[in-house]
Design brief:
Pfam families: Glyco_trans_1_4, Glyco_transf_4. This is Glycosyltransferase. This protein has 841 residues and is of the alpha/beta class. The protein is built from 29 helices and 28 strands. It has a seven-stranded parallel beta sheet. The protein has a six-stranded parallel beta sheet with strand order 12-11-10-13-14-15, sandwiched between helices. α1 crosses α15, α23 crosses α27 and α25 packs across α28.
Length: 841
């Protein structure tokens, strides 16, 4: 009996929409009753099902949908983007009430593709809980991230998206979305289909999809529509391309998308043009020509023959372009299983690809194309020259490219794999399956059926401070919308509410809250972030300050945003019991809740309350309110040097020392860029003794050492001497490279507990020269050269010793790395878990 399958994609256009339609055609080729449904785009087949969004019936929900779409997705998310990448970042909301669409509700199998703005997480959770068979093909990484479709090198999807490098996220939209997804479709979740082994590996290591069943099934292609052109020579002539000319093709849905690598290929061609290498490799009189298609034209230069085809919607035209080309270029920086590669190979055109994502699985070296050694211009240039020398005009290569696709990607081949997967997971059929003709009539009947918009995000998405954004943008219209209650912790787990302060200088891999990624099983951590300041409080900021003065809270602890965060924590604890509240930045938060009576919390039980303090004892003296410290169940310090600040106010049994950690998976030793002189690095501004660093630099130069100092800080001192390079705003990757490039970290300090810059240098295996203050010696062990505070001569002598004996410097770097590994966040997470366990007892 035939199974009914609905393939769902938000849009029919774009790479994912085209791949989704092809999966639908593959399913049909296997005898399944398949439908292809989408909400954006026009029908291109008689039986397409085009969802027609209609306004939500509840006025408040309709207003919230407008806020989510117009103010959040196409407002906040666009204006707050960083320059890390320009690939789309999207939320799931607003979605569609797909359970109100009869064909979708009745299907045996629901096969999802690209679902931003169509599949509400809560709906998928309900379907999974009810036993519906759901398959999800991963066309990008969005189902496993907090919003990005490609992570641009970030790996937070493996644990939790806490600080997004692609978005200046003051409203915690990304972490809230990540948490909502994890609650909605983690195991037991949908059956995941990955077109490439690379994507399957990403899903397997992700925190959201890692527990799901994962199958590798490549994308299919219509091998009749995309096929070698018998009149290829005549077609090339019609395009103005001679038989010896080299015709390259490059195209994407939008050529402005940086991850597609168009700019890198253009740079490679420019180099080959300017130095004459390509002209020398081609036959006499032969030209280079570049065919481009997609949104926005490709750049070029005078003398480059270009064929600009614009946006191509006709498959026959696209197949002509690809079939006429000698080589399709896919120079991606990030990619999964791009359609153009499959389409070119089906047309018998070999491909040049970068060693990125699933591309090396699609293109086999010397069989269906060439794989460049790296995704950079010179590597592409060299690979292009190799193609001209070895494969230009190679009929055998074109035939083997076509044969590969016929064997691995033809509709019947993929259809059989999908049918086997569907049969393995499908529940017993409760309806008699219709015949093909009747099924087609049903598709036609529902071809433009209305589907209400759904705008009821889950409790995780509506957490602080995203809820304040929605209230601000939606006003009274959304204020009365019922918020779903948070789900209680699973039996046997402890609910932890962790509150941390968002500092702009914390990257995706820094910040004291990173241990929360690595807590062991049995702890259900709900992580909330508070931006510094009082911007969220708005006109009430002065009221909060006044209340703070009445409560005796110090200036650092009564910022308006922090008061709002505590109010939100109280509401969360009043609704659902919590076991522990942990303020990761104790100097800046948890000033109110420890004073409140137990009856305000769910079940009348006050959670245990812990706070971590980061500042040195001298600084803490003017920040702490001693009367509040006694109400804490645990005080967590970073080093023993802080203990005196608490000795008179907190029971010693409640004081725990847990060191600061470091991401040793990211901050690692690596290749160094060439550079002149003895390179020194200084990072940061808080409690830095820049004057001693500059004085030491002068002494080093007087001693004859060609010392160079690179200072990375958002707040450079006003008296920076000549020759010091000052920078700010580096990405995590650029900061890591700065540590790798330096000969030593020169970081004199006025005081310190732990220090990110020192830890990052240790993890990168670089020698550290710093000041023996606070907890620095405790943190570094015997792996750093430490001198007394303000001792410029001592700093200079330590650097001279390293410069004079590279063997000693190398040994110190190895010891530094070993010390960093002892402070890895995984170990620090286990130490925190031990503190939490003690609170439970």
């Amino acid at each position: 009996m035939a199974r009914t399958v609905v393939h769902l994609s938000t849009g029919a256009a774009g790479g994912a929409g085209r791949a989704g339609r092809r999966a639908h055609l593959a399913a049909r080729s296997a005898g399944l009753l398949s439908a292809f449904t989408f909400a954006e785009g026009e029908a291109s087949a008689p039986d397409d099902v085009v969802l027609q969004p209609t306004a939500a019936e509840d006025p408040a929900e309709a207003a919230l949908a407008a806020v989510l779409r117009d103010r959040v997705q196409w407002g906040v998310l666009q204006t707050a983007r960083s320059d890390a990448t320009n690939t789309l970042l999207s939320m799931a909301h607003p979605g569609l009430a797909l359970d109100r669409q009869a064909l979708i509700a009745a299907a045996d199998i629901l096969h999802l593709h690209w679902t931003s703005w169509s599949m509400p997480p809560a709906l998928l959770r309900r379907w999974l809980a009810s036993g519906r068979a759901v398959v999800w093909t991963l066309h990008d990484l969005w189902p496993m991230t907090g919003g990005c479709h490609y992570p641009a090198g970030c790996e937070q999807y493996r644990s939790a998206c806490l600080t997004c490098p692609q978005l200046h996220d003051a409203w915690s939209l990304v972490p809230n979305a990540f948490t909502e997804k994890r609650a909605a479709w983690s195991a037991p979740g949908p059956v995941v289909v990955a077109p490439s082994r690379w994507m399957a590996a990403r899903a397997a290591e992700s925190a959201i999809l890692g527990g799901c069943r994962i199958a590798v099934i490549p994308n299919p292609i219509e091998t009749e529509a995309f096929a070698p052109r018998a009149d290829r020579a005549a077609l090339r002539a019609a395009f103005g391309i001679g038989p010896d000319d080299l015709l390259l093709v490059l195209g994407a849905f939008d050529n402005r998308e940086r991850r597609k690598g168009g700019a890198i290929l253009i740079e490679a061609l420019r180099r080959l043009h300017e130095d004459g290498r390509l002209a020398a490799a081609l036959a006499p009189g032969a030209r280079l020509a570049l065919a481009g298609f997609g949104r926005s034209p490709l750049p070029g230069w005078e003398g480059l023959t270009t064929l600009a085809f614009g946006e191509v919607s006709d498959d026959a035209v696209l197949a002509d372009i690809l079939g006429a080309a000698d080589l399709a270029c896919i120079p991606s920086l990030e990619d999964n299983y791009p359609n153009i590669t499959l389409e070119a190979l089906a047309c018998g055109t070999p491909c040049l690809v970068t060693p990125v994502g699933g591309l090396p699985e699609m293109v086999r070296e010397g069989t269906s194309g060439l794989v460049a050694p790296a995704a950079e211009a010179e590597a592409l240039a060299a690979t292009l020259l190799r193609f001209v020398a070895q494969h230009h005009g190679d009929v055998g290569l074109r035939a083997s490219a076509r044969a590969q696709v016929e064997a691995e990607n033809a509709l019947p081949v993929i259809g059989a794999q999908l049918a086997a997967l569907y049969e393995d997971i499908a529940p017993p059929q409760h309806l008699t399956a219709p015949d093909v003709a009747t099924h087609a009539r049903a598709l036609h009947a529902f071809g433009r059926a209305p589907v209400p918009v759904s705008a009821r995000p889950g409790a995780a998405f509506l957490r602080f401070p995203a809820n304040l954004l929605l209230r601000r943008e939606g006003g009274e219209a959304v204020a009365g919308l019922t918020v779903p209650p948070p789900e209680p912790a699973a039996p046997g787990t402890r609910r932890l509410l962790a509150l941390h302060t968002r500092h702009i200088h914390h990257g995706a891999r820094s910040g004291p809250y990173q241990f929360l990624r690595h807590l062991p099983a049995g702890i259900d951590a709900e992580i909330r972030a508070t931006p510094l300041g009082a911007a969220l409080a708005g006109e009430r900021a002065e009221d909060y300050r006044a209340w703070g003065r009445l409560l005796g809270a110090q200036a650092f602890g009564q910022q308006g945003n922090a008061w709002l965060a505590e109010a939100e924590l109280l509401a969360a604890c009043a609704a659902t019991p919590a076991d522990i509240i942990h303020a990761v930045d104790g100097e800046l938060s948890l000033w109110l809740l420890p004073r409140l009576p137990g009856w305000l919390f769910a079940g009348g039980k006050r959670p245990a309350m812990a706070a971590t303090f980061h500042q040195p004892a001298a600084v803490l003296g003017r920040m702490l309110n001693a009367s509040l410290l006694g109400a804490l169940d645990a005080v967590i310090l970073l080093c023993e040097a802080q203990r005196p600040a608490f000795a008179d106010h907190v029971d010693p049994a409640r004081i725990h020392v847990v060191p600061h950690g470091i991401d040793t998976d990211f901050f690692t030793p690596g290749p160094r860029a060439p550079g002149d002189g003895f390179r020194l690095l200084s990072v940061g501004h808080w409690l830095r003794d820049h004057a001693s660093a500059f004085a030491a630099l002068t002494l080093l130069r007087q001693a004859g050492l060609d010392a160079r100092l690179r200072l990375i800080t958002p707040n450079p001192p006003p008296d920076t001497p000549p020759g010091v390079i000052v920078e700010a705003g580096l990405t995590d990757e650029a900061l890591r490279q700065a540590f790798r490039d330096t000969d030593a970290l020169l970081l004199p300090l006025h005081d310190a507990t732990a220090n990110n810059a020192i830890l990052e240098a240790l993890a990168c295996g670089r020698p550290v020269v710093s000041t023996d203050v606070g907890g620095v010696a405790e943190m570094t062990g015997d792996t750093a050269r430490l001198v007394p505070r303000g001792d410029a001569r001592g700093l200079a002598d330590a650097v001279l010793g390293l410069a004079a004996d590279p063997t000693v410097a190398a040994a110190l770097g190895r010891a530094a790395r070993a010390r960093a590994e002892a402070l890895d966040w995984r170990r620090v997470g286990a130490l925190h878990a031990a503190v939490y366990a003690g609170l439970g007892s």
